Amino acid sequence: MTRSSKPVLILVGSESDRPRIEPAFPILDEAGIGYDFAVCSAHREPERTAAVAREARSKGYRLVICGAGLAAALPGAIAAQCDLPVIGIPFDVGPLHGTDALYSMVQTPSGVPVGTVGIDNARNAAHLAIRILRA
C-alpha cells in the first residue's frame, strides 16, 4: 500500500465480507471522512496482515476498522501490531450467527484493545470512527 491521505483503513478477511462492511461507506462519505478498503486475512496471510498493521500509521491512517466472522482474528491481529485505535465488527456468519466472532473480539488480551460494535453493525463502527477522529 502507498501512503494514504485518508484517515481510515477498513479491512476484512475475505472479499465475501464486503457486503457486510459496505454499510459503513456512505456514513463515512457523508461525514467527509476518507477511507481505504482492503482484503487482508489474518489466517491466510499472517505476514502480510502484520505488515499492513505495522505500516498503518506511517501510511497516514489514524484508525482501523476490521470486520470478521467465525474466529474473528483480524481485529486482534491488527491491534497487536499497531498503536492505532481498532474498531471490530463481528459478522453474522457460521452456525453461531456472529456470537463466536463477538466473543473473540471482546476477549482480546489486556494491552491489545479492540473497540467492538454489535454483530453486523458496520454503521455503528463508522459512527464510532467519526467520533474518535473528531475528538
Describe the structure.
It is a single chain. By secondary structure, the chain is an alpha/beta fold. The protein has a single domain, classed as Rossmann fold. The protein contains 6 helices and 5 strands. Strands 2-1-3-4-5 form a 5-stranded parallel β-sheet, with helices on both faces. Strand 3 (about 65-70), helix 4 (about 75-80) and strand 4 form a beta-alpha-beta unit. Helix 2 (about 25-30) runs parallel beside helix 6 (about 120-135) and helix 3 (about 45-55) crosses helix 4. The longest helix has 13 residues, at about 120-135.
Offer a quick outline of the entry.
This protein is α/β, with parallel strands linked by helices and 135 residues long. The protein has helices spanning 18-21, 24-31, 46-55, 73-81, 99-106, 122-134; strands spanning 8-12, 35-39, 63-68, 86-90, 115-116. It starts with 7 loop residues before the first strand and ends with a helix.
SSE map:
Blueprint: E1 8-12, H1 18-21, H2 24-31, E2 35-39, H3 46-55, E3 63-68, H4 73-81, E4 86-90, H5 99-106, E5 115-116, H6 122-134
Parallel strand pairs: 1-2, 1-3, 3-4, 4-5
Helix pairs in contact: 2-6, 3-4
